[in-house]
Amino acid sequence: MPALMRADLAVLGLGHSGLPLARAATAAGITTIGYDPDSRTVEDRAAGRAPADGSLTASALRRMLSQGFRATDDPTVLGGVRTVVICVDTPLGADRTLDLRPVRDAARTLSSVLRPRTTVVLESTVYPGSTEEFLRTVLEDGSGLGAGRDFHLAYAPNRLDPGGSGPDLARIPKVIGGLTPACTEAAAAFYSRLTEKVVRARGPREAETAALLETNYRQINIALINEMAVFCHNIGVDLWDVIRCAETKPFGFQAFRPGPGVGGHSVPIDPNHLSYPSRSLGYPLRMVELAQETNARMPRYVTQRAAALLNEHGKSARGARVLLLGVTYKADLADRAGSPAGEIAGRLRDLGAEVTYHDPYVQRWDAGGVPVPRAESLYGAAGAADLTVLLQNHRCYDLQGLAAKCQLLLDTRGVSPAGAAHRL
Predict the structure, then answer these.
(1) Could you give the dihedral angle defined by the CA atoms of residues 349, 353, 359 and 363, in that order, rounded to the nearest 10 degrees?
(2) Which helix (H) or strand (E) holds 122?
(3) pLDDT of amino acid 1
(4) Is 252 exposed, middle or buried (0-12, 13-18, 19+ CB in 10 A)?
(5) What is the pLDDT of residue 97?
(6) What percentage of the chain's residues is helix, strand, coil (to nearest 5)?
(7) Given this model, what pLDDT does residue 94 score?
(8) pLDDT of residue 383
(9) Are strands 366-367 and 370-371 parallel, antiparallel or unpaired?
(10) For 181-237, what is each residue's pLDDT tens digit?
C-alpha cells in the first residue's frame, strides 16, 4: 500500500452519510481514507468538487483534503486500516423493500483484504437482523475470519441531519450495538473520539431497530399532522394557528408541520418487511403502514388544492401556468432524493397545466422522465404564473416579496406572512 494511503479509518461510500463522517474523523485527527467503487465520484472528491446532494460544501471538502483525507477506488488500501465504517446507500427497490446489494458489494470488497483485529461498523439503513445475518455472513465467507473472534462487528445508526441547524456530529449521541460485548467496546472506542456520548445497545438488532423506531416516529407524526391539515381545511380551521397554540404545552407534545410529502434518504422501511427478507414477520405494523399511506397521498392532495384554487379564481388547470418553487426534499440542499415535487409536477401536467420550476440549487430537472422548464427570473416567473406553489422553503425566498408578485400563491410549508397566501 502506498505510504500516503495508510490510514486508521476507511469510510466505504462517499455519499450523504459517508462524507460527513469522514469529515468529522479527519477533523479529530484520525487519518482517514474514503473508498468508493465509482471512479468518477473519487475523482470529484480528490479534486475538491463537492457532492450535488449538498452533504458537504466545497470549502469543507478542500479543508479535509488539506488535513490529509484521501479518496480512492483501490480496494487494496482497505487492508491496512484499523476501523472500517460502511456508509453506502440502501435505496428502496420497485417492491418497496430495501436493496441491500450495495452493502453486499462493499462487504465483498472488504472481505478480500480484511485483517484480524479490524473493527467493522455498518451505518447504512438496513433491516433488523441484517448486520448479524447478512453482513456477517458475507464478511466471514470472503475472509475466512470469524466475526466476534477474529474481527469486531457492530451496527451504529446514522443520525446526521444534512443541512440541518441542529447539533453537529460531536453533540449527537451515538448508538452502538456490537455482535459481542468486545465488539461493542471496540466500536465505542472509535466513536468516542468523534462524539461526546456513546450509547451501548444490547446488540446489533437493538441498534438497527432503534434506527427504525426513530424513522417511523417521524413518519407517524408527520402523517398525523398531514391528516390534520386536510381535516382543518375542510372545516375552515387555521391549522397553523392550531399548531402555534398546541406547541405552548410544555409536556406531552412535540410540534410537527405538514408538507407536500415525505422525502429524504432515511426512507421508511415497508412495515411488511421489517425483518431480513428471507423470513418476513408475516404481519405489518399497521400504524406505520397507515402513516405511509397518508403521507403518500399528500402530492395528490396538493395537486387537488392547486386545481381548486385556480377554479375558485375563474381559471382551469388545463392551460394554466403553474410555477413550482423548491423541488429538493429539504431546504437549502440540492438533494432531490424522495422529493414529492416530481409527482406533483406530473399530476399537474396530467391536468393540462404548463409547469415550470425555480430552485437555486437545481439547474436541470425532469419529472417522470420529462424535462421541466426552469424559470431563470424568479419574480418575473412568479408574476407571469397563474399559480405559484411553494414546495420547499429555501432561505433565499422572500415570501413577502413573492406574495406581492404572485397572482396566486399556495404555500405548502406555512411560512408565508399571514394572509399573504393560501396555506396547505
Answers:
(1) 60
(2) strand 119-122
(3) 38
(4) exposed
(5) 77
(6) 40, 15, 45
(7) 73
(8) 95
(9) antiparallel
(10) 999 999 999 999 999 999 999 999 999 999 999 989 999 999 999 999 999 999 999
| CB contact at 8 A, 171 and 160 | no
Q: What pLDDT sits at residue 140?
A: 98
- For the chain, which residues score pLDDT lower than 50? 1-4
What is the predicted pLDDT for the residue at 268? 61
> What does each C-alpha distance from 242 to 232, 247, 251 come to in angstroms?
9, 9, 16
Question: What is the full DSSP assignment across 132-165?
Answer: IIIIHHHHHHHH---BTTTBEEEE------TT-S
Q: Which helix (H) or strand (E) holds 205?
A: helix 204-235
CA distances from 289 to 209, 220, 235, 254 (A): 17, 9, 26, 22
**Element housing 354 (H / E):** strand 354-358
- Amino acid (1-letter code) at residue 181: P
User: What pLDDT shows up at residue 162?
Assistant: 64
Q: Give the residues across from 164 on adjacent strands.
A: none
| 39 to 34, 43, 209: CA distances (angstroms) | 12, 6, 34
Q: Do the Cβ atoms of 152 and 158 come closer than 8 Å? A: no
Please, are residues 204 and 175 in contact by the beta-carbon 8 Å criterion?
A: no
Q: What does the alpha-carbon distance between residue 243 and residue 262 come to, in Å, rounded to a whole number?
A: 19
The pLDDT of residue 3 is: 40
Judged by DSSP in three states, 279 sits in helix
Helices marked H in 323-397: 341-350, 378-384
pLDDT computed for residue 101 by the predictor = 94
| Grid cell digits, residue 386 | 397563474
Output b/e per residue, 120-156; b: 16+ Cβ within 10 A.
bbbbbbbbbbbbbbbbbebbbebbebebbeebbbbbb
Task: Determine the Cα–Cα distance for residues 225 and 244; give it in Å rounded to an integer.
Answer: 13
Intra-chain end-to-end CA distance of the chain, in Å = 57
Indicate left, alpha or beta for 163 from its phi (over 0: left) and psi (-120 to 50: alpha): left
Phi, psi of 157 (to 5 degrees): -60, 140
Name 254's Cβ contacts closer than 8 Å, sequence gap at least 6: 221
Please, are residues 117 and 148 in contact by the beta-carbon 8 Å criterion? no
430537472: which residue's cell?
365
Single-letter amino acid, residue 41: T
CA distance 225 to 202: 34
SS3 423: strand
